[in-house]
Amino acid sequence: MAEISFEDFSKVELRVGEIVLAEKPEWSRKQIRLEVDFGDEGRKQVFTGLSPWYKPEDLVGKQAVFCTNLPPKKIENFVSEAMILAVETEKNDGFTILIPQNKAKNGAKIY
Question: Cβ distance 37 to 106 under 8 Å?
Fold first, then answer.
């Protein structure tokens, strides 16, 4: 595993966002399009390949952890403005998103 400096890690913006909209685009088998509320930081559109493990309607209203300072990524004719964080399950049969244990303020920075 490659080490990074604390200075490099401190450049990563991890924030809590609330998923206010989730839908499956017709053009994709794996993608889910999210609209995420980051409080004072505004709303961002996020695409995630988690549809094999999540239904869009099950994500709406959930808070999750996102990396918010990656450059925008073009997916088909759309732009993804952040990345949701997920971890492979213990049995290696899927992924689960990282969700705060307690309700946090939308846009809260993770330290």
Answer: yes
Q: Where are the alpha helices (DSSP H) in the chain?
A: 6-9, 56-59
User: Domain 6-97 falls in which CATH fold?
Assistant: OB fold (Dihydrolipoamide Acetyltransferase, E2P) (2.40.50)
Indicate the domain borders of the chain. 6-97
Q: Can you tell me the distance from the alpha carbon of 68 to that of 30, in angstroms, rounded to the nearest whole number?
A: 21
The string of pLDDT tens digits covering residues 41-94 is 999 999 999 999 999 999 999 999 999 999 999 999 999 999 999 999 998 889
Buried-exposed string 22-35: b where 16+ CB fall within 10 A, e elsewhere: beebeeeeebbbbb
The three-class DSSP label of residue 87 is: strand
Q: Return d(Cα 33, Cα 25) in angstroms, integer.
A: 7
- DSSP assigned state of 9: H
pTM score, whole prediction: 0.93
